[in-house]
Please model this.
Amino acid sequence: MKAQKRLGILTSGGDCPGLNTVIRSVVSHATLSYGWEVWGIPYATTGLLEQKAIPLAMHGLDLHGIDPLLCIGGTILGSINKGDTLAHVDEILAGYQALELDALIGIGGDGSLGILNQLQSQGNWQFIAIPKTIDNDVALTERMVGFDTAVNTIVDALNRLTFTAASHDRVMIVEVMGRTAGHLALHAGIAGGADVILIPEIPYSIPEICQHLAELRDRNWRRFAIIVVAEGAHIPLDSSCNPSCEKPACGITQYIADEIKRCSTYPIDVRVSVLGHIQRGGIPSASDRLVATAFGKAAVDLVAAGQSGLMVAWHNGRVMPVSLGRVLAKSPLPVDPNGFLVETARCMGIYVGKK
Model:
């Protein structure tokens, strides 16, 4: 082993707030506590494929003593979430060796961590994973980097849309991310005061939505409503679409808007807002900064202890290692249709689909 350990770090998959905070934590702890070299791998496995690395040091990460990585969204290392990485396994493994890395820390969601896990297994790397995703669907951890900030971003948007909806007696349908899991829609919908939340895990009915909106209007004198829809929500049970299609040509959210207008027994003004990549941007929240810092520190300690094939996870207010293989076997983690948050939403008078 070299006198000075050479540690690589990369970010993979979709970006989210807090990635730079993880990088900051890893570089700080690895250099100040252990005296290691830390090298950033640009654009995830593409950097390994092209044998590129960037030296990272604490004095090079600040600006006149100001530390910007705490509050800058995205990732200074760049990231990728497309391409056929496993078609270039030999070149990537050769790149890892050429860069003379002793260990690698990978920050990613379940998809990118699954690919990195295959690579580390074939290359016999020392590898530690850090979970990040705005989808909140990585198993065996209570928290992951990026989710809290994304929820706050959506809630801010819902607050703004509520005012304009109330001013014009409109139903606002807000599409949020979540192709396979509805955690983002469920958390933000409850916190943002939504009247209807539609997620992939729970079937729903257009007539039931219309009945719920009518009750809001007739019983509570509410002439407006907020509907939060996860992008992966399926077509409704009573849809006229071909049941085999996953999403109507116009998009699931616009389809729901059109169906509500068609089904409603009274004239209704429906508008659609798709938040898109706004949810991935912004300054990381205090919670995400805390989790990112704790994860980075714990990952470096695991490398120092000679551990590999593990992911750092948040349990009961502390960080602990879990088997990456077990994590991937249980991911992506869906919303429990009978879980506490779904029950809470229904108790608050929110329509969340069929019971």
User: Anything to note?
Assistant: The two ends are 59 Å apart (CA to CA). The first strand starts at residue 6 and ends at 11.
